[in-house]
Amino acid sequence: MSNVKVSVVVPVYRVDQTLLKECIISIMHQTLPEIEIVLVDDGAPAENAHILDVYAGMDERIRVIHQQNAGVSAARNSGLAAAGGKYITFVDSDDHIAPDMLEQAFAFAEENELEIAIWGIYKCFPDRRDEYMPFIQTIPLLHEDQKRDLMLKTMAGDLPIYGKLCTRCGSGACCAKLYLRSFLQKEALSYPVGLVRSEDVNFNIRAFDKADRIGYLHRFLYFYRQLSDSATYQYRDGGISVFEDALRELRRFLDENKKPELFYQVYYMRCIFFLLEGMNMDYLHPDNKKPLRQRLAELKKKMCEDPFADAAERIDGSYLTFPKKIPFYLTRHRLAACMALFFSVYKKAETGFKRANQRNTPPA
């Protein structure tokens, strides 16, 4: 197909068939017709692989790549290599998009001659829908300070780090972005193969750093489905290793590009946040059947190791509110039992806060 304006890359592995079909149909029915849809079968179950071939037979704009399972980064890279559109965007196979998402994003990118266009996300839970966006209004072209803020928030995610935040949300996810393909090729940008967590953060922080022209469209056009049984919530013995891999890659970016101290401060915060996430995935996960004493001993050992110990020593507390200082203090002094208690209280408070806000949130 010639004159492709946007290539849509969809990695497919283990996903509910109903959600997969909804995803593909939402792309096929876009109001922008000049698109191609690259479905990457990353060693998916036979039933899912068959669905991809069926839809390819229904729409000539669909291309299917079948490959052995190599992980989501490798799947996205296969899609990148095969894509022929002027722009490229990524959609996860259990999500769906608004009918005019590609039309709006393409027009916005073309009008402002962007290398990267970003827009808002609806994060869809079973009982609510949250708005996620890095800025609170459309910005046709980010200036340098706004680009810096975008990169810091990409590293920080939902973490409030310093006083000039535009929103509480970052923009590290692969979705809700349009990348100029010639820009990605010129900068030789690809997803870091082997990372299980934050591969999209590590890709985007490099893309934002290289791009001269980034714009934000204040529209919510992507529907990100938050599944309770996703990889984030599954028990993984020694699961904190996946966070350590992501942190090493992020630290390498900071060192190679000689980023200023504020970037390192945000990185240190991310380290401790991932240590807490390790408890969510491993040390305090209900499926972890090890004795509590053993789990706390493993947590204490991890608190003594880098990058977590280094982050606890190097953090500048003036960037943090008092509650945010607590996990750094506990890590610095290797107080594993207190850290576990802090995390439990934090999770209960977070759950209560979300429930309290559901009354003002539109249904998913």
Note down, in words, how this protein is organized:
About 45% of the residues lie in helices and about 15% in strands. With about 375 residues, it is α/β, with parallel strands linked by helices. The protein folds into two domains: about 5-225, Spore Coat Polysaccharide Biosynthesis Protein SpsA, Chain A, CATH 3.90.550; about 240-350, no CATH class. The longest helix is centred in the C-terminal third of the chain and has 23 residues, at about 260-285. The model is unreliable at about 160-165 and about 360-364 (pLDDT under 50).
Mean pLDDT: 89
Rg, rounded, reads 21 Å
Number of spatially distinct domains:
2
Q: Report the order of strands and helices.
A: EHEHEHEEHEEHEHHEHHHHHH
Flag low-confidence runs: 161-166, 358-364
How many distinct beta strands? 9
Distance between the termini: 36 Å
Number of helix segments?
13
Strand fraction band? 15-25%
Top CATH class of the largest domain: Alpha Beta
What characteristic shape results from the CA principal axes?
globular
By CATH, the superfamily of the largest domain comes out as: Spore Coat Polysaccharide Biosynthesis Protein SpsA, Chain A
Biggest β-sheet strands, sense, barrel: 9 strands, mixed
CATH level-two architecture of the largest domain = Alpha-Beta Complex
CATH topology of the largest domain: Spore Coat Polysaccharide Biosynthesis Protein SpsA, Chain A
Helix content: 40-55%
Which structural class fits the helix and strand makeup?
Answer: alpha/beta
